[in-house]
Design goal:
Number of domains: 1
Shape: globular
CATH superfamily: Gcn5-related N-acetyltransferase (GNAT)
Number of helices: 8
Distance between the termini: 21 Å
Helix content: 25-40%
InterPro entries: Acyl_CoA_acyltransferase (IPR016181), Glycosyl_Hydrolase_84 (IPR051822), GNAT_dom (IPR000182)
GO molecular function: acyltransferase activity, transferring groups other than amino-acyl groups; beta-N-acetylglucosaminidase activity
Protein name: Acyl-CoA N-acyltransferase
Order of helices and strands: EHHHEEHHHEHEHEE
GO biological process, one term: glycoprotein metabolic process
Strand content: 15-25%
Keywords: Acyltransferase, Transferase
Length: about 200
Amino acid sequence: MPIIIRPVADQDEPALSKICLLTADAGNSAEHLHDYPELPGLVYAVPYVKLPTTWGFVLEDTGTKEVVGYVLGSQDTRAYEAYATEHWWPPLAEKYPPSIATKSGDVYYTNLLRNMYTIPQSNIDFSPAHLHIDILPTYQKQGLGTKLISRALEHLKGEGLEGIWLGMDPRNTGARVFYERLGFKEIDGAPDANQLGLRFADWRG
């Protein structure tokens, strides 16, 4: 399959949301957990097209013109958090009140929109930049994740950064193996073992 990597664009929002949903349950589809399937993407994907300090790249199948994966992030997580707290989460919290939620996924996200977590300072001390990466299952295990992260690192090096971090679902053991193979390690001082950081000098992609 001919695959290209290109910068994310506004028109990719529906695809980002779909990919996020189809991988939101520890790497598996979360469709069964939602009556409002857009919620995972509104938290973990779409903001990286809309908010300041963000960047992103997508995998596009040139045969179908379908976006099949993404790597998204912010080069300044604290600035991202501050802007989202003021401008992004409040309208979503108003649109999606907890009273609408009956399925577990919707319960989780409608509450999260009202009490968004703050990134541990240990992560910020490691690097101001973070990322999210997701690829549709049928396109996994083809080296595309490594290529996506490599493209992200190229961009971030150009911004003068030396490292990146991510948080992961502890249930997704396959993802952890993937990250550690590329050089990600647990962050010293982090509150749990699911915060992984990469010094670009340690990249093994």
